Amino acid sequence: MIDRLPYRLQLNESPLLRDLEEDEVKSLFKRMEHLCFESDRTILAQGVEEKGLWLIGEGCCEVVRGNQSGTKERILAMLGPGTVFGEMSFFQQAAHSATVRSVTPVSVHKLTQQGFTDLLADNGRAAGKILTNLVRVQSDRLNMMDQWVCELMDRNQTENGATHTLNEWHQFRSKLYSEWNFY
Amino acid sequence: MIDRLPYRLQLNESPLLRDLEEDEVKSLFKRMEHLCFESDRTILAQGVEEKGLWLIGEGCCEVVRGNQSGTKERILAMLGPGTVFGEMSFFQQAAHSATVRSVTPVSVHKLTQQGFTDLLADNGRAAGKILTNLVRVQSDRLNMMDQWVCELMDRNQTENGATHTLNEWHQFRSKLYSEWNFY
Question: Are B106 and B58 in contact (CB under 8 A)?
């Protein structure tokens, strides 16, 4: 089954796999679980602590967040092939802050913490590159958020368009958490 | 010289070295440059692209940011032994956004990108743990900033205390960039 996975596509397109050689991607994929979902299935549930890095192979997912009573959902982002999710909670003691659900039939590749530990022992170079890509995206996100809030603060000193600011923030946030390449 | 470095102190206290075994810390230190500065020396200059992870061994430094004309400086944070700086620019194409200057005589241990690449080849496990610590702190910072801005947005819908908000933001930011342990 592993040999039929579209290595080359993901090698070129996923920011998680940036700088990885083909044999390093193979090492990674051997450590992953390969899952398929019909459309409208919950892959990762808000409020649940399940640590993993999920890489979308085919299909699309939506990221949604419910309100406290669980009655109303807001769509935060749409994720396509090559996109990663779960990285915000992978190294933390934290429940997932949103639900990821399939919109079409999807195939996803999941790296558990044990899988990651095994990869680090087995192919430290591949694990190092993946971690570097994770640090890079978190640093980029943080810098972007920092800049955004700085601009907001400057603006708030001269005017007060609270509703406009709020909409802008929701748009920014959706982009921040669904993209990995900011430049 | 390396044998006289206070491994054990930093092993216990620096968030960069969390989970590293003593022999892994030794591998890291062999790849670092060990520098000493008198007080009031610039260790890392705002606007300069010099990639490195700096770990303070002894002494204190201040993080300052100049305005555009370079005439007025604002102190963003004070850093003590075991603190890391430079990590925001280590994996990015970006100049340092602030200057780090010694307040007392300091000893610092600097890991260059080449040093890091060598460590990854030489001791992938140690490099993996350091990267994991870096991802974790960036994720924590991002989550914290996210929460902070969310609360700000909620508040802005009902009231508008712009000056108060601005002071709060400066305090938050100082804490966010100088600490590694948020919980």
Answer: yes
Q: Across the A/B interface, how many CB contacts are shorter than 8 Å?
A: 107
Asked if A162's CB is within 8 angstroms of B169's CB, the reply is: no
> pLDDT tens, A30-45?
999 999 999 999 999 9
Number of domains in chain B: 1
Q: Find the residue in B nearest to A90 (Cα).
A: B136
B100: domain CATH number is: 2.60.120.10
Return the beta strands (E) in chain A as ranges. 33-37, 42-44, 52-58, 61-66, 73-79, 84-85, 99-102, 106-112
Q: How long, in residues, is chain B?
A: 183
Asked if B139 lies within 8 A of A138 by C-beta distance, the reply is: yes
Q: Residue A61: which domain range? A: 2-136
On whether residue B157 sits in a domain, the answer given is no
Structural domain contains residue A142:
no
Q: Half-sphere exposure of residue B105, counting CA atoms within 13 Å on the CB side?
A: 2
Contact A125 B128 (CB under 8 A): no
Closest Cβ opposite residue A131 in set B132, B160, B166? B132
pLDDT tens, residue by residue, A66-87: 876 667 788 878 888 888 888 8
Domain presence at residue A143: no
- pLDDT category at A53 given cuts 50, 70, 90 is very high
> Among partner residues A94, A125, A153, which is closest to B124 by beta-carbon distance?
A125
Q: Under an 8 A CB cutoff, do A140 and B183 touch?
A: no
DSSP state letters, B143-157: HHHHHHHHHHHHHHT
Best mutation target, B19, B156, B167, to test chain A (most A CBs within 10 A) = B156
H helices, E strands: number in chain B = 5, 8
Q: What is the mean pLDDT of each run of 10 residues along chain B (183 residues)?
A: 46 80 92 96 92 93 80 81 87 84 95 93 89 88 80 66 68 67 54
In a domain, B16, yes or no: yes
Closest A-chain CA to B170: A150
